[in-house]
Design goal:
CATH architecture: 2-Layer Sandwich
Keywords: Nucleotide-binding
GO molecular function, one term: nucleotide binding
CATH topology: HIT family, subunit A
InterPro entries: AP-4-A_phosphorylase, FHIT, HIT-like, HIT-like_sf
Largest sheet: 5 strands, antiparallel
Protein name: HIT domain-containing protein
Distance between the termini: 62 Å
Strand content: 5-15%
Number of domains: 1
CATH superfamily: HIT-like
Structural class: alpha+beta
Shape: globular
Number of strands: 5
Organism: Kribbella pittospori
Length: about 200
């Protein structure tokens, strides 16, 4: 069953509504700008990141810094995967790829050179364990690992150091991110957190 342009309806099986237009037909809609032949994949959840949701307005430590606040929440609420002695591993709320983790020292410190020897050791060990957990869960082919030091280098929250652990797979840079600037994430973050936490290796 085909609906009108104003009110398309799905078929009896609950499928996607059929388009009343020819595939190459440009539909002119009043008041929405210049029409074009491109389809749109809307990702409104990204607007929270664009508008700076959860980004601190101050460089000071405390509840205004999400990385200071998260350890005080239950693991499931904070998306914390594992807690170490001097640092913790948490899922990125705006991931580049599925399983994108961050390793964060508990102490509010901005620069890598300011870390203590114990913090450096824990950040390094949690990074190694994060790689093992992600490989066990999703057989990642590789990783991008690193930290952006300072806003000029691209740090979203420059005042509290955090190291990214981004899983990579062959073909993960397909047309979606390259052309549509959109990442397809096939799993809820809460489910990813649970899987990684379950598969987190024990320290040697």
């Amino acid at each position: 069953m085909t609906g009108s342009p104003d009110q398309p309806s799905a078929d009896d099986q609950g499928g996607v509504p059929e388009s009343p237009y020819a595939p190459d037909e440009v539909v002119v809609q009043d008041g929405v700008g210049v029409p074009d032949p491109f389809m749109r994949l809307w990702t409104p959840h990204r607007m929270a990141y664009i508008e700076g949701e959860n980004k601190p307005t101050s460089d000071k430590a405390g509840s205004g810094c999400p990385f200071c606040r998260l350890p005080g929440l239950p693991d499931a609420d904070a998306l914390i995967v594992h807690r170490g002695e001097a640092a913790y591993a948490v899922l990125n709320l705006y991931p580049y790829n599925p399983g994108h983790l961050m390793v964060v020292p508990y102490r509010h410190v901005a620069d890598y050179t300011e870390l203590t020897a114990a913090e450096v050791t824990d950040v390094s060990e949690l990074t190694r364990q994060a790689m093992q957990a992600v490989r066990a869960v999703s057989a990642a082919h590789g990783f991008n690992i690193g930290m952006n030091q300072g806003e000029i280098a691209g740090a979203g929250i420059a005042a509290h150091l955090h190291q990214h652990v981004v899983p990579r797979w062959a073909g993960d840079t397909n047309f979606m991110p390259a052309i549509a600037h959109t990442k397809v994430l096939p799993q809820l973050l809460s489910e990813t957190r649970a899987l990684l936490a379950k598969s987190w290796p024990t320290a040697p």
